[in-house]
Amino acid sequence: MQRLTTFSNLAIASTILFINQPAWANINQITNVVVYETDDGIELSLESNNGMSSVSTSTEDKNFIADIANTQLRLQSGGDFTIQNPAPGITQITVTSPDANSVRVIVTGESAPPVVKVEQKDQEFLLFIATTAASTTTGEAPPTETPETTDSKSPPDTDIELVITANRRSTPLENTPATVEIKTREELQREQPLNRTVGEALQTLPGIVINRLGLLSGSANIRGLTGERIGVLVDGERLPNLEFGPDLGSVDPFRVQRLEVLKGPASSIYGADAFGGVINIITTTPQPDAPLQARAYVYGGGFAEYGGNLEITGPNFVIGTSRRVAGDATDAAGNLIPPQGTAYEIFDIYGTGRIDLDANQRLELRFDRYRQDNADLNGFPSPPFIAAKNVFRDRDRYSLSYINENKDGGTSFNLRSYYQKSARRFDNATQVTVSIPPTFRPQTITTPSSTFTLTESYGFSGSADTPLGNAGNLIYGIDISQDNSISDNLINNTTGSLGTRNFYGAFVQSTYDLARNFTLAGGLRYDIFNFKESTGAENNTNAVTFNIGSIYRITNTLAARVNFAQGFRPPRLVDLFGSDNDRTFFAPTRGRVLADPNIKPERANNFDIGLNYSSNTFRAGVTYFRNDISDFIGFESITPPPPPRFGAPAASIRVANKDVLLQGIEFSASYLLTRNLTVEGNLTYVNGEDKSGTPLSQLEVSPLTALIRLLYDNNQFSGYLQSRFYGGQGTVLLSDNRVGNGSPAATVFDLAIGYKVTPSTQLTLSVENLFNAEYIYPTVNFPAPGTRVLAGIRADF
What would the pLDDT profile of 168-226 be if each residue is shown by its tens digit? Predict the structure, then answer.
């Protein structure tokens, strides 16, 4: 009853806010600028959230000027739009904000103001621009209708996508030799609410699979590497490694503005946490001239799942909250997902503030409080575990950043400090068969366990960006972090040892244009690692890693890239010394494991070779990667000593160094069928090989994955139909330490539809597993839910 009350309150609040829209709701916002080629010239489309603003035009010298009143420029890049020489006779097009509530478009001709016709259609401002190569000798404006076959929403010279993660500065994606995947806010919003977590938002990108411990808990598997080998950043701040790696479930996908994934080793940029890649989660950032406005989303449907989100933004601040609850899901056959269902509850509240010291300098303050309750870990239980649950997981984050952009062209720099606290309670039950005197007959004993763990993390980073003339940049800085963890056994009322993890790193990266069509990028990093426990156990090590890559633009539409990057990861204390007196510890899905004090650090050498093509209507990319890992920290079977007459059996596996080869191919493509209809897809094949001949662990085997998606959007009606394909894993080392078949192949369809009843209000219908396919989540052994239908309403006001 309490859940329904909470949902009703959210719905009522959202409805009241929607009905009582104040006057400032009429301020328009331009969110995207796109240039299309047409038979008669070019068409400039300014996509907005309203489209109802007055436009005045004028000419001056060689310029055609259009001023749009009561409108703000809110592009994803955060700045203005500029394109040089977009067509014959046009030298430049700019879209800027001369003041807080107007937008100016300037189209510059070669010798005179160009002929431009302005129209408003739906939620677009359209500028039809005649060019010298078009049939416009009579001076008439080009027609308003253009052939659909030449339209493009992403032409290569206009849609310049910037990434931050690849070298710790904002860099055009086309100048990044490493393999980077991006998911924009538009894409994330389109997939809501099917994405329960950030992990589910990532799973449709090439080369990424989610190793699930439950519907909310799991870690990203990037090209066969997972868990603690994948670094996760939130607004550039490192998430600590917990029991199963960084907690992807602790960030509400509603508040995420952008996702960037750097695939392959990135230790030379971000340190040991980035041994297999980096996920950068970028949340809503406050803007100084943002109007007071709000956005809300309320949804509900299958498996008693309900949720509501509300975010309010204004000048220099963002605040928001969300609440989600779900009942127990069933699989496609109608059976409860074992062992105890999939119910969960989530609450999140956050805020970000910005203080502008002057035109170049600002402070940013962030606060985030996230709580998850009663989430079952369906993929965790393996002998001797029979049940596992996150009773609660709390994460508090506080951060303060100083940013100096130095817009005059000198060195810019930023300083970031943060404190994070993660408190969680984990309950489980184990079941073993032992011989009990005096009869010593085998009997099954079930033992409950309950553990409270507190992890406190402190971090500081500083980086500077110095221009190297007009051809390149030098980025350099330091990272310092410390994690302190301690656990209490709530069953026998004992406290474990305090574990401390210290990382210190210094790095330098550079990007330089050696020629107009050739870019070189690279850098190196020095790290010092220290692990210690209050019991006296300690491990110290250091490493130097580097990366180097280049991009050669063969033509305006075709580019080749190559990148080499190293990874380094020291062993954990538990790998070296265990956690019990017999030097053993329990590992998720593996059971009891024997530690080895002589275990060596992991090292990786990775090559990426890629070819990218981009034209007005078609984009495609193919990448071959090869990652040679020496001293990979895995497991090997051992012959245990004879079991005791009383007590649990001894460990049958131990930690071991192995040499592993991971290689594969990634392919992605997107084709604009018409102006409103796009088909896109990707395919990834990863081949993992343990050079000792032993099959890799099931969690380390990335299956063949493929995605095909059909997208439609005419500004009022939008939607997509997608097919997700997962290949079978084949022979793997299963969770009970025997060799067998991993997760089987599966094909799953999803559908999402959106309809705007007003420019600021959209109704949504989302269907996961459209045809109720019965399948197992890839890389784990628990069934996925059957068809899930969710209806919602999204409003901006």
Answer: 887 777 778 999 999 988 899 888 888 888 999 999 999 999 988 888 888 899 999 99
Euclidean distance between CA atoms 759 and 756, whole angstroms: 6
Domains, the chain, in order of start with CATH, read 2-150 (2.60.40.3500), 162-280 (2.170.130.10), 281-384+392-796 (2.40.170.20)
Q: How confident is the model at residue 74 (pLDDT cuts 50, 70, 90)?
A: confident
Does the CA dihedral 165-167-168-172 come out positive or negative? negative
- Cα distance between residue 755 and residue 712, in whole Å: 12
The string of DSSP letters for 462-525 reads: EEEEEEETTTEEEEEEEEEEEEEEEEEETTTTEE---EEEEEEEEEEEEEEEEETTEEEEEEEE
∠ at Cα 77 (259, 220), nearest 5°? 10
The model's pLDDT over 419-440, given as tens digits with 9 standing for 90+, comes to: 999 999 999 888 877 777 777 7
Nearest Cα residue to 497 out of 485, 511, 479, 515: 485
Distance CA 695, CA 740 (A): 9
Match 């090209």 to its residue by tokens. 223
- pTM score, two decimals? 0.81
138, β-bridge pairs: none
Could you give the strand order of the β-sheet that contains 277-283, starting from the edge strand earlier in sequence? 179-184, 256-263, 277-283, 230-234, 237-238
How many residues belong to the chain? 797
In this prediction, residue 23 carries a pLDDT of 35
- Identify the bridge partners of residue 446 per DSSP, sorted by sequence position: 431
Which H helix or E strand runs over 271?
none
Provide the phi-psi class of 406: left if phi over 0, else alpha when psi is between -120 and 50, else beta: left
Give me the torsion for CA of 338, 340, 341, 343, rounded to 10°. -150
Rounded to whole angstroms, how far apart are CA atoms 684 and 644? 48
Of residues 243 and 632, more confidence is placed in 632
Calpha distance 446→494 (Å, rounded): 20
Rounded CA separation 463/295 (Å): 34
- Over the stretch 217-248, which tens digit does the pLDDT of each residue have? 888 999 999 989 999 999 989 999 887 788 88
